[in-house]
């Protein structure tokens, strides 16, 4: 009995027969038995279920397994592909899959399955959480994402049966997430087909028009392309370079993207056809390049050596654009046969090549590094939506290549800054960076990098991330690391502030915070469902819990009523960090009468007593008595307005006097007419006395007509 006959039964669908025939070419007998059992179990589980097209549902998992069979993946992966919807759609538990087919198959199925029916606030939350779970499983075993990509590819191939709105949503999600992941893992054929199908369903009219125009253009140029192909073959043969040369049509989405990015019409996109040259050895790649550069003139700046410096997904090839006959640009790719196989199937090459092949090892090392960085980003993201935001940033890396001081090459997305580079080296380097040098010259941290830059980061043990970095970093890793650090710092600061707010509330009831019964604390934490005392104190600081309510629950009811006294105020020291915010509507500074408002998820916000926001606050429980501490060692922003006569050099004199008075300017805005200019400044001050000193100095300028502090702006 042959391996194929084990599965070829009258119950087998035509698609499954083709699948079994193809896998029998490289599967062993025990692998065939596993696949047969997985197929029969899936067929039984999905019995009576149909797709929107009317086909039996089993046709979908069979097609998914067929796509993975083209990559020559192992029996465990194909069995999981056949079973990938069983847990989600039929109610069969993961434990039963594990018992019947083994833990590896069950883990893959679980990784691909969507989350069980949990309530989410929005569809976006649900999708983000599904991606989080899938990518977490992928970081443990990359075959999870291979199954998911094959699943999405078959769904895209059969998307016509969906409503146009559903087509648009699925296509956009595919273009934003799945196609870039396929590219990141080196699955170029899958990546390009996902892009083409996404383009077709996202912009059906544009797709049809472009398809028609491209078909006509290729017909007109067919003779020219044939001549070029013959010329390339002949020249390579004359120079003794053994090569396989093929014409390569550019995909519609690639042409469309070029038209959009460079604002070109279709007639302006000349390089819609390319050529691929496959040779035996790496040295032959460079010989072939020299031969072709002798045949047609290379276009300056259009050569890329991805063999010496591979792409982040392990892709290797030489790219060059040549000026062919009739001024037609010709795009050439030159690579070895091994490089071509890896370019087409990426990380799936692990199941085709021996583990000791260095090229494949490098490819898997890069994939593992990327997945490791995903795990770091996942652990540092506060929620799934934030993680998805970071993921999307990292999935569109038009790459540049920069060097560390030791000569190591780092591939980074285009648009990165020195801060992104620091976090790419190591999270600790990013957190402690204070300065940077590019090619030996000191530069601001927000400086953008370009290919070939040699970057050196200067660190200090006392340094910490600046929230302003979030406005210009480009990588998800840098953004998530900065946010994670700031959240950790804010949490520590919030604990300290929450303790002060709770102690204030306890004292207002005449209770000593040191004498609160520990048993009451334990009961409160149990009843509140909060993990720890620190979490509860942080919630108080962030306005998620009210100090007065928690204080009452900590004290015995009779004590809470009998010992109530007047409220005591909390002292603002200026060192509370991010736990205390100063309102930008009124810019309070030391010396002002102030009030504290507790806002949920924002914490304690300090306003001036005459701020309209305070008057509008109807919830007195959210309002706290606060006062300035005796010595505050920091500066505060304050908004001032100044009317001046329009004369040459007046702005320079005003800014000079502000600087001489010991203040910095944070922001400036001007409103002018023929005679006067109103200057709106945000400047830094220590307190009201310092502000009065600045005003006195500014009044010495003859052109200053009127100056005042702007509150309630």
UniProtKB/TrEMBL annotation:
EC identifiers of the protein: 3.1.7.2
CDD domains linked to this entry: ACT_RelA-SpoT, HDc, NT_Rel-Spo_like, TGS_RSH
Keywords (A to Z) from UniProt: Hydrolase
Gene Ontology biological-process entries: guanosine tetraphosphate metabolic process; nucleobase-containing small molecule interconversion; response to starvation
EC class name: hydrolase
Family to which this protein belongs: Belongs to the relA/spoT family.
PROSITE patterns xrefs: ACT, HD, TGS
Domain annotation HD: ranges: 57-156
Cross-referenced InterPro entries: ACT-like_dom_sf, ACT_dom, Beta-grasp_dom_sf, HD/PDEase_dom, HD_domain, NT_sf, RelA/Spo_fam, RelA/SpoT_AH_RIS
Gene3D superfamilies: 3.10.20.30, 3.30.70.260, Beta Polymerase, domain 2, Hypothetical protein af1432
Record-linked SMART domains: HDc (SM00471), RelA_SpoT (SM00954)
Function, as annotated: In eubacteria ppGpp (guanosine 3'-diphosphate 5'-diphosphate) is a mediator of the stringent response that coordinates a variety of cellular activities in response to changes in nutritional abundance.
Protein name: Guanosine-3',5'-bis(Diphosphate) 3'-pyrophosphohydrolase
GO terms, molecular function: GTP diphosphokinase activity; guanosine-3',5'-bis(diphosphate) 3'-diphosphatase activity
Keyword Hydrolase in record: yes
Domain TGS: 398-459
NCBIfam families registered for this protein in UniProt: spoT_relA
Annotated ranges, domain ACT: 639-712
Gene Ontology annotations for the cellular component aspect, listed alphabetically: plasma membrane
